[in-house]
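Why should sequence recovery work at all? Because a backbone constrains its sequence more than one might expect. Tight turns favour small or flexible residues, buried strands favour hydrophobic ones, and helices have their own preferences. The token representation captures these environments compactly. In the example below, the structure is given first.
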């Protein structure tokens, strides 16, 4: 029997998903939450090297995310070059200095106080890799014609979630950095007009003595509404 089938004029492949007994399903769901609940955003990175293959597989994992019409509207730019990391840090800090100096509202600054952030971003030079995620608003063919992508914001957001989970699974740490505006990344990385920066993510190992803010995640009753 063929493992492919034509449905409405297009090829489909057979898909099977391993299933478990209810007790095992409960255990797996609980264990996954416990494991993922240990993920934290980190700002104190070690400069310890990471094999390129690790980053490659993390990106492949991110690219398994669902996307509108399966357009996969993302580009992952990976920077390890020290000079380029320095340029990115300098440009990011310039924007952050302006933001912390007046662009941000007093309410925003107050909300950031428990996290302890400021305009200085040394991790952009220290972390061995920077992954800059770009969203592709549309595609360009060789003749310069445009082809629309769908649900770009949602699709790239999903891919970034998969990316962070893959980084955590590899035993590494990351930070979702969003200097605003981020147009300088388009220029520094020489990206085409159809790509806009979405997230700047340093990736690496944490320093030996690493401290993170003492925060709590919302409880289930604060994030979910049930309609039984």
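From this structural description, the recovered sequence reads:
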């Amino acid at each position: 029997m063929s493992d492919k089938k034509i449905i409405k004029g297009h090829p489909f492949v057979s898909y099977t998903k391993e299933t478990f007994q209810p007790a095992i399903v409960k255990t797996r769901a609980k264990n996954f939450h416990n494991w993922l609940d240990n993920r934290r955003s980190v700002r104190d990175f070690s400069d310890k090297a990471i094999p390129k293959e690790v980053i490659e597989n993390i990106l492949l994992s991110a690219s398994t995310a669902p996307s509108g019409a399966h357009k996969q509207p993302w580009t992952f730019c990976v920077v390890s070059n020290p000079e380029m990391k320095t340029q990115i840090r300098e440009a990011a800090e310039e924007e952050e200095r302006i933001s912390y100096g007046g662009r941000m509202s007093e309410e925003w600054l107050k909300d950031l106080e428990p996290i302890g952030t400021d305009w200085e971003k040394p991790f952009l030079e220290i972390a061995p890799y920077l992954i800059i995620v770009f969203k592709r608003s549309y595609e360009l063919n060789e003749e310069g014609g445009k082809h629309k992508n769908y649900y770009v914001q949602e699709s790239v957001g999903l891919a970034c979630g998969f990316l962070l989970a893959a980084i955590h699974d590899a035993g590494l740490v990351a930070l979702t950095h969003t200097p605003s505006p981020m147009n300088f990344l388009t220029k520094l990385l020489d990206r085409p007009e159809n790509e806009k920066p979405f997230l700047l993510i340093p990736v690496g190992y944490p320093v030996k003595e690493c401290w993170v803010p003492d925060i709590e995640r919302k409880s289930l009753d604060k994030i979910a509404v049930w309609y039984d």
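A few observations help interpret the result. The radius of gyration is 20 Å.
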